[in-house]
Design brief:
alpha+beta, Lipocalin, seven-stranded antiparallel sheet, 2 helices
């Protein structure tokens, strides 16, 4: 019973204490709003990790399940200017609400170059500028 209580408290505290800051949006049909949690930034040498949330205007699909938000943890190599996906969680509701419908954790994706002008570049700049200030 104690384990369940601790697990529940960890899940609730993750939702309550995340500091989601809007970092981008697409307003066209099928658009989205992107948020970064700068409080989640962790550094390890030249690499930093940070969580971000993508909130959709229309449903996306994971298999046969619909979702309206996804919470993603990426690793950024600030010197090599690359990133890779580490974890991805899909939620039925907006802003990480509703049922968790799918997740992928400990993804072993290769690092890919940052492409100028897209959301990942924006997130990279946030994560790496925060890292450099520490």
């Amino acid at each position: 019973m104690k384990r369940l209580t601790v697990l529940w408290l960890l899940m609730v505290s993750t939702n309550v204490f995340a500091e989601w800051t809007m970092v981008g949006e697409v307003t066209a049909k099928g658009g989205w709003v992107a948020y970064a949690d700068t409080q989640s930034i962790r550094k390890n040498g030249n690499k930093v990790t940070m969580w971000h949330l993508l909130d959709l205007q229309t449903f996306g699909m994971v298999g046969s399940n619909k979702y309206l938000s996804t919470v993603i943890r990426r690793e950024y190599d600030c010197e090599a200017e690359t990133s890779r996906l580490l974890d991805d969680y899909w939620y039925a509701g907006n802003m990480k609400t509703g049922e968790l419908i799918n997740s992928l954790t400990n993804i072993k994706e290769d690092h890919v170059s940052i492409i100028p002008g897209n959301l990942i570049e924006t997130l990279f700049n946030i994560a790496c500028s925060k890292k450099l200030k520490n």
